[in-house]
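WARN  no MSA supplied for this record, continuing single-sequence
INFO  ligand: 5'-O-[(L-methionyl)-sulphamoyl]adenosine
INFO  echoing inputs
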Amino acid sequence: MSFNDKQITFAITTPLYYVNDLPHIGSAYTTIAVDVVSRFQRLQGKSVLMVTGTDEHGQKIQRTAEALGRSPQEHCDQVVGGYQSLWELLNIQYDRFIRTTDPRHEVIVREFFQRLWEKGDIYLGQQKGWYCVACEEFKEERELLSDHHCAIHTNKQAEWRDEENYFFRLSKYQESLEKLYREQPNFIQPESRRNEILSFVDQGLQDSSISRINMDWGFPIPFDPKHTIYVWFDALLGYITALLAPEDESSLENAVAQWFPFNVHMIGKDILRFHAITWPAMLMSAGLPLPGKIFGHGFLTKDGQKMGKSLGNVIDPVDLTQRYGSDAVRYYFLKEIEFGRDGDFNETRFVNTLNADLANDLGNLLNRTLKMVLKYGETQVPNISPNVVPKDNILRSKGEVLSSTVTQAYEALAFSHACEFVLALIRASNKFVDEQAPWTLHKQGKQTELEQVLYTVLETVRLAAYLLSPVIPNLSNAIYQQLGYTADFNDKAVGQALPFAEHTKWGVLPGGQLLGEPQSIFPRLDPLPEAS
Ligand code: MSP
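INFO  complex generated
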């Protein structure tokens, strides 16, 4: 289940998002998760490349632009800024942003297409079938709802197509794919999605069409320009183009030279087949190495209901982040929803979770402890050696093993578990303060015990901040600064400045370090009325 620990480079990508509309919470969810993984890898000192970008061709975009009276390119140029500004708002540290309308991408797509053509894996045929423009995908009749409505876009009808298309010999890769899934059982995760793919492949793979006619928003096939390359074929190759360094000349060889293949592709469950079947088969055909894993996360609902514009219940990620801040949004989605399963957003639960975990448990623990230190006449971390804290001290003994369990959880992409393990120790620390009653120790003049208790708690908060920093980097910064560090978890070189091997140990906080001013790190939010 874990990434290869010995690897010192790590490449990960989000899907490339459609620009038919501004980003929705689903795109934000995938991107936050990818950012957290990237940050965790950087924390460990690895050299990381995080890719994201936009998928700008195809009928869906073309029609949207037409409806808005814009050219497709103008439309894409307008929407793409909405993605980039949301990622900034959500504190996403991507390294490459690929737009599939980038001219450098066309070079890669042509070269790749040519390679498969020369291999004999592309041929001209007749495509008949039901096409969902919203999915940009042909559907089997049995997959559709009544009146050929799409099961994913339930208000959209699939359209009948009967046209000449170029096909990719996907069926040729049936056995190689089965071998891949067998030999690399972690290639598709989670397990439930892997099983879906295994049973789909088991039914026998059909060749898939990779060109369209009567549609010109995309790249033409060089030797047959009335055909436009299918948007999914084009978009998947965007993952390769993204790897070109800004100064590189566009070629497949240059693009795959350093970072390819990706360690992880993170996507939503609706686009799993393209990533777990088509993509590896395309790479096999091109003689390129395969990614480490494809993780298909679940779908979000709002107040228990499917989200949709027509239902009028979409969550606007910009509005949510502007009102609550990036750490709050990042924390809620990763802590409250088990990654891989479907999950729900409900604003009351959102506020309650943030208040309970970040304002009360974590924020208050730091604040009350720092205030006690000040009140008892100090401005520095109690000046003791951590070794004087008995090994069986509950916080020390739990703190010493915390990083290994949290690391395993991050590596398994079990973000909710990672957060929960840390929060459990924070809750134990609050209980520890109540039981040890430093105010009584102070009154009784038990200075040694008092210093031990306060040091132990501050060190536990530090450890928690370090381990939660991929999820809540701004709060972790605030905590580290109040503990007297000049740390920046938003610096991509954080793994060098605050080395993982050192900062995940218990007992790292230097006794005597001058403390910063105690400030509330996460002010309590006003509770919302319970939904009726
Ligand atoms: N353009 C394709 C991807 C091409 S990748 C080479 C695409 N784009 S998308 O914008 O429609 O979807 C982007 C991501 O958002 C997908 O991973 C999808 O699963 C995710 N989500 C869309 N709606 C969602 C929810 N309601 N909940 C969670 N994620 C969802 O598909």
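The first strand starts at residue 9 and ends at 18.
INFO  checksum written, moving to next record
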